[in-house]
Amino acid sequence: MTTYVLIPGACHGGWYYDPITTELRDLGHEVHAPTLSRDGNLEEHTEQVLELVADLDEVVLAGHSYGGMVITTVADRAPEKVKALVYVDAVVPAHDQSVWDLVNGPLREWYITGAAADGRTVAPLPVFDPRAFAHPLASLLQRARLTGAVDKITDRWYLYAKNMPNSPFTRFRDRFRDDPTWRVRDLDATHNFIDGGAAEFLDVLKAAGGAA
């Protein structure tokens, strides 16, 4: 049995992973897919997940989009808890980098216009799932504070959604695909990778857990 913790992207909750969590649990695995605080910053989201993994071991930690910030900082604080890291069309920060630093113009424009109503939270895009909710702007601006301990984790995967136009995540795919410490795959999917890329994501999770 493998323990999985799946972190969603901005504006999404743990429900985003429902098709995956169901399949993994049916196979006998332990799966956690938390919904991050709707008013927290990166540090608070990190603490939320650290509390979750405190009683877990050998965790396969996966993150989508903004979730890459969270899994990186969690793994840096508690590398002894993490068996593997799986990034799915996600940002991968270095020390002192924020989401804002790592994304391109279209996403930055969304953050600004999406936060115009209250100045604190970014409204979900119209194409998002009806369950989507406003995401705290502070978490997108706060920089990751890393010690380098995350590099102790050598089982690292990057899944790139190749059908996203003008993707800000191409830089990560290109950086990691020739790095022997990373395993990189292209998903035949848009950034909403569950639609089209769920099966391959599931395969990678099982491989990262040692089941394939």
Q: How would you describe this protein?
A:
- This is Pimeloyl-ACP methyl ester carboxylesterase.
- Residues 5-184 form the AB hydrolase-1 domain.
- It holds the Pfam family Abhydrolase_6.
- GO terms for molecular function: methyl indole-3-acetate esterase activity; methyl jasmonate esterase activity.
- It comes from Saccharothrix australiensis.
- By secondary structure, the chain is of the alpha/beta class.
- The chain has a single domain (3-208), classed as 3-Layer(aba) Sandwich (Rossmann fold), CATH 3.40.50.
- Helices cover 34% and strands 17% of the residues.
- It is built from eight helices and eight strands; from the N terminus they run E-H-E-H-E-H-E-H-H-E-E-H-E-H-E-H.
- The chain has helices spanning 18-26, 42-53, 67-77, 99-102, 105-114, 137-141, 170-176, 194-208; strands at residues 3-7, 30-32, 59-64, 82-88, 121-122, 135-136, 156-161, 182-187.
- The strands form two sheets. Strands 2-1-3-4-7-8 form a six-stranded parallel sheet, sandwiched between helices.
- Helix 1 (18-26) links the parallel strand 1 and strand 2.
- The longest helix has 15 residues, at 194-208.
- It is globular and about 45 Å long.
- The relative contact order is 0.18.
What can be said about this structure in brief?
By secondary structure, the protein is an alpha/beta fold.
